[in-house]
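As a warm-up, study this chain.
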Amino acid sequence: MSEPAGELPEIEALVADLKIVRTSRISAVTLDRVPELARAIDCCFPEVQAPYKKARLQELLKLATSTIDDPAKTGIQLAFGLDTRTDLFNSKQRREQFANFFNVSAETVRRRHGLEDQVITKLAHAISKLMQFAPTARNPASSATGGVVVEGARFLHLQEDLFSGRLQHNQFRTSHSPAAYRDLIASLEKGARQIDSFPKRLSVVFKSDKAIQRIAEQRFGRGSSMIEPYVEEHMLRRRTFYENLSSGTTVREIYTPEDLRSYLLNGRHGKGVDLAQDDLRESIELWRTCAESFPGNYLVAFTSERIPFKYEVIDKRAVVMHEAISGNDRDRLNAFAIEQDDIARVFSRDFELVWERTPPADRTLGRTLDFINELHRP
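Now compare it with the structure written out below.
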């Protein structure tokens, strides 16, 4: 991949930044230490909010490694912590992958750091190429409607495919990672005027920062690159939830009391994930506070009817179904959304049917508070 001579200093600066990330790990590095990478994030993800730029650094590196030849064989994903199967710095597997790529021995890789430098330089070129075709105001030709710039279209396809799901002709969007799910659900929920859902457990918005972090660590393992997008997703949904309520959005949730009671008493959050009792108590109190603070537009019902599957309807125009995978989370399908009025109305009518058939006494604030108080009884 060749670059004009005038861009070589930029490539050198990117290489220097990448080496800082390589030796510091993504979780420890700050963006002011890697100014060229920070600029790359602004170019490739111009809409990102400041608190989430660190998470976008991981996504930028994933995006860049997907554009170079055989990123798995080079071991570069392991080296940067994008693949967390082994130790980031001195893994035998990473050395073997570098050795296979360069057709040398693993001992040669261990002794000759220049081999890794070559791959880091390739990665820097890939990032520079992505910056060149990122859809920014300075480069409108590579926007989603441009279509004439082949490389720009390829970049957009990679970005959309890896991190935002796929928008297809029938308005069916899919998600394959915590980062993709975050972007999928955030775009639908933000500014919604009515959200109806059958939560599987107590809604995710009623969890503290510490509880979210502990769930992520149990689910993905400490040090996983999946943790930050997962935490970001939950915090973003919580903020959006309360912003919507404050602006008058109606949120209705229907729970099966037996399932919810079991969850709040036992703390079994999913496969291999258990909540501490302190986290459960805090979630219950956050739920109580929300119900008491927004009695007119946060509404809860308890049904005795069987709920065959969980879903969320947003403004009667989109329906979302999702389930935690807890294995190969970066690649497995974890959610899908259908943005089509006729289909969404079918789900909305189903929700309305269960809501209306629930006795009025079981969909009042008093019923919710009684349920909460019963949890504290010996």
